[in-house]
Amino acid sequence: MSQKTVKIGIYALLALLSVAFIFPLLWAFLTAVRSAAEAGAYPPKFLPNEWRFDNFAEAWQAQPFSRYLGNSVIVTTLSVCGMTLSSAIVAYGFSRYNFKGREFFFLLLLSTMMVPWDVLVIPLYMQFNWFGWLDTLLPLIVPAFFGGAFYIFLMRQFLRGIPHDFEESAYLDGANDWQIFARIFLPLMKPQLALAAIMYMIVVWNDYLGPLVYISNSDKFTLPIGLSLFKGAYTTDFTSIMAITVLMTLPTIVAFFFGQKQILNVNVSSGVKG
Hints:
By secondary structure, the protein is mainly α. It has 15 helices and no strands. The model is unreliable at 267-274 (pLDDT under 50).
């Protein structure tokens, strides 16, 4: 088998996989532009008979989604900034400093990934209630400023591969620890920071259980909670659900396209060559 044939086969396989991943979003869009009667018809048709693009505006106006969007933007922006920065600081400490019990505490940190959120939700609810944070956005934002085990692990593994000559040279030039971290290591960590930010953005942007548990005031609802309001006890507005779903997906797609260059740019050899 020639090399050209192998490449064609690989590209064909990748094209099929791309279609498989894109099809759910495409189907959501096609459902969003159908009439309500056509969306509930069986068997479903691939293309709608009538393209109703005004469904997007009607769905957006059916609930105060502008307010929900503002809440989601606030929660996502602050949470992503807090998670990436705090995780980078903790990863820097675990990778560049030698202290007693370092490996034990790092393993203890990693073990927290095995604790399901279902086990923590009641203690967290009681804690946030004691703080007076219920029905505010604080329970959705503040925990992110304490880092995440997975993102700390991701950044620590990268930092461990950088020679310690960096710190030694910076110390000789009179730099302190914070200056070394902010001016030398943070720029080198751009791919890892971008990857962590996009991954955590997707988690926070689509989070449904957190706002559902901690928030009962409709003024504080986020987009996923607003989306669930289209589902009633006896009927479900599929066209509105799909319309808002498509609109909710756009920010994550845009974020990936803007961040993919940093994510793919993992070659730091130019910064570590002696």
